[in-house]
Amino acid sequence: MTAFQNDIEAVEALKAEHGASWDRINPEHVARMRAQNRFKTGLEIAQYTADIMRRDMEEYDADSSVYTQSLGVWHGFIGQQKLISIKKHLKTTNKRYLYLSGWMVAALRSEFGPLPDQSMHEKTSVPALIEELYTFLRQADARELDLLFTQLDEARVAGDETAVEFIQSQIDNFETHVVPIIADIDAGFGNPEATYLLAKKMIEAGACALQVENQVSDEKQCGHQDGKVTVPHEDFIAKINAIRYAFLEMGIDNGVIVSRTDSLGAGLTQKLAVSHTPGDLGDQYNSYLDVEEISESDLGNGDVVIKRDGKLLRPKRLASNLFQFRPGTGEDRCVLDSITSLKNGADLLWIETEKPHVEQIAGMVDRIREVIPNAKLVYNNSPSFNWTLSFRQQAYDLLAEQGADVSAYDRDKLMSVDYDGTELAQLADEKIRTFQSEGSARAGIFHHLITLPTYHTAALSTDNLAKGYFGDEGMLTYVRDVQRQEIRQGIATVKHQNMAGSDIGDNHKEYFAGDAALKAGGKDNTMNQFN
Fold first, then answer.
1. What is the model's pLDDT at position 224?
2. Which end of the chain is more exposed for a tag (fewer CB within 10 A), N or C?
3. Can 208 be counted among the known catalytic residues?
4. How far apart are CA 14 and CA 22, in angstroms?
């Protein structure tokens, strides 16, 4: 017996206990409403989705072709439409997640207005967006089930038992739109206690996976900007511990921590690491500093020095009081960061790179896996990369290595439309198409995401609409490029009243008031034009 049938029987028994005062309660209507509201709390969602992620991680360990994916979204409606689209076209949400980007929260969800990705936005806006996303995903469940319940009622009235059985099986085997969210907690928004408090709020809202980065909280920069400043490993481990404690306190024992290192592009540190013995973690961190050997007589007022192997070393300190790493040490620091995080409670890695290059990523992962064999990455397929130029240059280099004649191409100008359709451009596009599968097979990428794609799609689609609507085409632009496409592609939002919950409300009114219900979906509802 299904959960749906069990609920009907349970309410029937409860109704019998209350006698005549419950005569107007329909047990099947109660079961329907319960099915439409499967998740009662954010913690239920966090546990459900944590179980999904852990299962997916195990499956990836056994077969790297079953990687996972997500798109970053900045509003509940955008996340909802993404999952509706996935279910419509791919028939299942399996291995598809949502990503919550701190960049987009800063740029689009702050009460201060648009902000750069520097942790200046309100920290409460992050758990608020998680809650909003799951509210919209739960509403997508309610809407899709409501459509099935309506079809079930119509089939019963028509006496079509085959249809009744088929629709009932769809209800019994309904796949929820609720999927895991990997949520960006930036650099923790303060000290470890602040990180812990925010992590609890994010978990309560439904997050099963939190991504934290090793930058200084009050100097945090976007991973694709200059001026990034990292912290010593012990400082970062404290924040990983804070997040784990938050998961454990909230009862999500298998919550996922994604440890991000920005060391590849970060040339600065705020402070020197504490070292007690040669070769310890602090000593390893300090070993990458840009230093000069000095004698005691060379010491100046206020100088900071490190003693290593009997030598006095003076780190290069900037006017900002930040210390500088030696150029060329980024990859080594990324490897050390990653190994250290996995040894201290992180579950997944994120290495922020300056370009999408499988072999560059794989080179670091190979070194990490020498120590942690099942190390896995979350990778940012970033809109900050010029994908076309990068992969055309990679294709150019590959052709040149193979001895092909590349004299017709200017490597520095490969973005030009003049190269569209060439052998090089086709090779580059094929490498872009297979980047995710190749990255997962070769470079240990468990999860591919695009951080802020819907920021760009919203801007592009709005530009196209405004250009035509306010120009000579007028209303034709909307009709041809939006509504006509919605109808022909089966985009559910063409019936926007239904998407917003009007039909669900009508059915609830009928549950509550029977034939006396005043409903919005009658013959005069203009949405009927889209039936």
1. 47
2. C
3. no
4. 9
Mark out the alpha helices in 177-219 (DSSP H runs). Answer: 192-205
Phi, psi angle pair for 269, to nearest 5° = -130, 150
CB within 8 Å of 43: residues ≥ 6 apart:
203, 204, 206, 250, 251, 252
For the ranges 44-53, 261-270, 450-459, the maximum mean pLDDT occurs at: 44-53
* pLDDT the model gives residue 520: 61
Q: What is the pLDDT of residues 392-405, one digit of tens each?
A: 999 999 999 999 99
Q: What Å distances lie between residue 473 and 11, 481, 482, CA to CA?
A: 57, 11, 13
- Burial (0-12, 13-18, 19+ Cβ within 10 Å), 20: exposed
| Start-to-end Cα distance in the chain | 34
Q: Is 184 annotated as a binding residue?
A: yes
Q: Which residues of 455-491 are buried (b: 16+ CB within 10 A; e: fewer)?
A: beeeeeeeeeeeebeeeeeeeebeeebbeeebeeeeb
Q: What domains lie within the chain, and their CATH numbers?
A: 42-288+325-381+437-451 (3.20.20.60), 461-489 (no CATH), 492-520 (no CATH)
Question: How many whole angstroms separate alpha carbon 120 and alpha carbon 352?
Answer: 21
Between 35 and 524, the higher pLDDT residue: 35
Interval 109-153: pLDDT, tens = 989 988 877 777 888 999 999 999 999 999 999 999 999 999 999
pTM: 0.92
What does the block give as tokens for 293? 């050997």
The answer to whether the beta carbons of residues 501 and 519 sit under 8 Å apart is no
CB atoms within 10 A of CB 324: 16
Instruction: Please provide the size of the chain in residues.
Output: 531
Q: Which of 73, 167, 222, 264 is catalytic?
A: 222
| For residue 201, pLDDT beyond 80 | yes
How far is the C-alpha of 258 from the C-alpha of 345, rounded, in Å?
10
Helix (H, G, I), strand (E, B) or coil at 85: helix
CB atoms within 10 A of CB 215: 30
> Using 50, 70 and 90 to split pLDDT, how confident is the model at 517?
low
Q: Is the pLDDT of residue 445 over 50?
A: yes
Q: What is the average pLDDT across 105-109?
A: 92
